[in-house]
Amino acid sequence: MAEIRLKKLYETKIKHELQASLGLKNIMQVPKVLKVVINTGVKDAVADSRVLKGVTEVIANIAGQAPIKTIAKKSIAGFKIREGMPLGVSVTLRGNKMYAFLDKLINLTLPAVRDFQGVSTKLDGRGSYNLGLKEWTVFPEVDFDTFEKIYGMNITIQTSTKCDEHAMELLKMLGMPFRRDRAKQVEQRGS
Q: What is the rounded average pLDDT for all residues in the chain?
């Protein structure tokens, strides 16, 4: 299998730079990405189960791995949902597929988002980062003519650290295009 560019960059350069910048004594303390979870909810699957099949194919093309169907845990009469009914798809990426997806997300997909200003700098408090995309059409694998409706997706990047500052530093070094703080932009323009 071909060498994954982002994985090689992490192993050779980023890991050692992170150890120095965070002041960690042991190389094993350096944060790393453990897994990436891609999740898409399909509320149209309640009325038409064939929609879920198409969504499953698209997510499989984007992730490079077959997703699993997520099912309703309990019945909700107001939404016509029954327990065990499929409502979406989810895929968990690890290893080479995870690094290949992150490389594609950071360097190809996010810059293709219309009016892109950067992603939020907010982490979840446990070292994980959640990113919501309103349209899956920003991925090059998605055929525009296949679906009448555009779906969104949630991407969760889980790191090995429980400290948000260490996880933020890792994501910055991997190239995640974070949004600049508005106050800093004003200061830079003024000086």
A: 83
Instruction: Evaluate whether 173 touches 38 at the Cβ level (below 8 Å).
Output: no
Q: Let me know how long the chain is.
A: 191
Evaluate if residue 153 carries a pLDDT over 50: yes
Tell me how far apart the alpha carbons of residues 43 and 94 are, in angstroms, rounded to a whole number.
Answer: 27
Output the pTM of the full model.
0.83
Residue of 188 and 110 predicted with greater confidence: 110
Which domains does the chain show, CATH number per domain? 5-178 (3.30.1440.10)
**Residue 183 pLDDT:** 43
